[in-house]
Specification:
Rossmann fold, single chain, 5 strands, five-stranded parallel beta sheet, alpha/beta
Length: about 130
């Protein structure tokens, strides 16, 4: 069981307002080590240079989208098992099926609610203490 204050998270979203909501929600869970990236390119650089316990990844971003980054991370042996929660405002059945086919197992709908975040975080990395 990970200690919340020791968990390191990367939140990836192109919208500053969403990143603020994520930081607030993680703080409510006791997780204070939260880095942010506003693009898939910036996120990839951080992920390859920092040891994260968890990544929340916005699906719809300009340039490289979150699902494309997800697929690239799964192909890299260093990041293949990194817990990732896909965050999206798009919950259409066809989109969900596409993500599941790519290997996404954890989804979080925008806007992020603290209780939903806790459920997904604990599903990804274990019960927080």
């Amino acid at each position: 069981m990970p200690k919340a204050d020791q968990v390191r998270v990367l939140c990836v979203d192109d919208q500053d307002s969403m990143l603020k909501i994520h930081r607030y929600a993680f703080a409510q869970l006791g997780i204070r080590k939260v880095d942010v990236a506003t693009s898939a390119v910036a996120a990839a650089d951080l992920i390859l240079s920092t040891d994260y316990d968890l990544v929340t990844l916005d699906w719809n971003m300009p340039g490289t989208d979150g699902l494309t980054l997800f697929k690239a991370l799964r192909k890299n042996p260093k990041t293949a098992k990194l817990p990732i929660i896909m965050v999206t405002g798009n919950a259409e059945e066809s989109s969900v099926k596409t993500a599941i086919a790519a290997g996404v197992r954890l989804f979080l709908r925008k806007p992020v609610a603290v209780r939903d975040l806790k459920v997904r975080v604990e599903a990804a990395i274990g019960k927080l203490t």
